[in-house]
Amino acid sequence: MRRDHGLYPILSVEEALAMVLGAFGPLDVESIPILDALGRVLAEDVHAKGDIPPHANTAMDGYAVIAADTYGASQESPKSLRVIDNLAAGYVTDSAVMQGTAIRIMTGAPMPDGADAVIPFEDTHQEGDVVLLFAAVEAGANVRFAGEDVRDGTKVLARGTPIRPQEIGMLAALGHSRVRVHRRPRVAILATGDELVDIDAPLTPGKIRNANGYSNAAQVLKYCGAPLMLGIARDNIDDLTSKIHAGLAQGADLLLTSGGVSVGDFDVVKQVLVAEGEMTFWRVRMKPGKPLAFGRITAEVDGQSRTVPVLGMPGNPVSAMVSFELFVRPALLTMLGYTELAKPTVEAVLDDALDRKDDRRHYVRVRIEARDGVYHAALTGEQGSGILNSMVLANGLAIIPEDWTHAPAGARVRAMFFD
């Protein structure tokens, strides 16, 4: 930790993140339909109640046969078998394959008694009730055996597993229509400032639209949170305080504010955050996003005291979005039950130079792409924290270390994809 102009402590990104994450843990558990569980985290182990597949079945269209009946078959010297039945997927037959016979069978149909292999259609030709075989197969060929995917009683999915489409498919295969997961974090989002108007309001002199409220809400949705839109708080203590209390009253697990936490800002936001709770830090050694406040807010809700973590983010739109990726996203994932929080990074060649750089860690907006087996990161134009288009054009952030005074073109840096 170091001091910034003697005013506020300034933390490293790692110090600040550790303090933020220390305030969160997995949320309580709920049972939901499996199609609502995408992106959530299992709160229980899932065991198989039965084999998958439940019975031996054919992996392709063909004829169920006794493998020994096919030995020696070739294009020049085909073998012939008598076809005794025709079996489609989803049906069973009372007929059993015996020496010299075969059953015509479709992919997924249960293997009939007596058969130990399937010869594909393309290696056969049927005439009436006789099929000619032009190739030999070994026992077990083209057969999917009972339990070859999942055995009865085995633990298939462990508690703490993030749920992707493949996990939803497995839950369906196991017969689970519902699953227990950690609930979605409720995030109250509050933009602050007299200069802000909502997106459908006319722009009068001196006003700008509230982009942060919507970009941050979209980020909350992206990471499986539930945004609670509190609107815009004006630069007065009463309005800001009442909107913060409204967020807590709606059951927020986290409060996000944007604007009003820079050193040069009017003190209204800082006054309210300090008056309503206890703040832990105000500055992080990064660019964009140096002004970042974190602490806890306490308010009376229905006669009971509620304390909720609060992150006060910068007002500039790029700063707010980058701060979200670095601090809010891991907090949301922690509440959802994730244990792997860091985004993967790649080593990339910086295509454009950064001629001047201060002693903060810089997160520059880049377009990352692979060329000739090497990742490259190209700047998306001017890097000002108010240039939202630099985020629109980017698919990631290049990370420039604190101790670099500049970053020449061709330098190798770590780069983080947004997705």
Chain-wise SSE layout:
Blueprint: E1 2-4, E2 8-11, H1 13-21, E3 29-33, E4 46-47, E5 57-58, E6 62-65, E7 79-87, E8 101-105, E9 117-120, E10 124-127, E11 130-133, E12 143-144, E13 155-157, H2 165-173, E14 178-182, E15 186-192, E16 196-197, E17 208-209, H3 211-222, E18 226-233, H4 237-249, E19 254-258, H5 268-276, E20 277-284, E21 286-287, E22 291-301, E23 304-313, H6 317-336, E24 345-350, E25 361-371, E26 374-379, H7 389-392, E27 396-400, E28 412-417
Parallel strand pairs: 2-20, 7-8, 15-18, 15-19, 16-17, 19-23, 21-25, 24-26
Antiparallel strand pairs: 1-2, 3-14, 4-13, 5-12, 6-8, 6-9, 7-11, 10-11, 20-22, 22-23, 24-28, 25-26, 25-27, 27-28
Helix pairs in contact: 1-6, 3-6
What descriptive keywords fit this protein?
419 residues, alpha/beta, Molybdenum Cofactor Biosythetic Enzyme, Chain A, Molybdopterin biosynthesis moea protein, domain 2, 8-stranded mixed sheet, 6-stranded mixed sheet, 7 helices
What would you say this structure looks like, in words?
- Helices cover 18% and strands 35% of the residues.
- By secondary structure, the chain is an alpha/beta fold.
- It has 4 domains: 2-27 and 184-336, MoaB/Mog-like domain (Molybdenum Cofactor Biosythetic Enzyme, Chain A, 3-Layer(aba) Sandwich), CATH 3.40.980.10; 30-50 and 159-182, Molybdopterin biosynthesis moea protein, domain 2 (Alpha-Beta Complex); 57-144, Molybdopterin biosynthesis moeA protein, domain 3 (Beta Complex); 345-417, MoeA, C-terminal, domain IV (Beta-clip), CATH 2.40.340.
- Strand 10 (124-127) and strand 11 (130-133) form a beta hairpin.
- Helix 1 (13-21) packs across helix 6 (317-336) and helix 3 (211-222) runs parallel beside helix 6 (317-336).
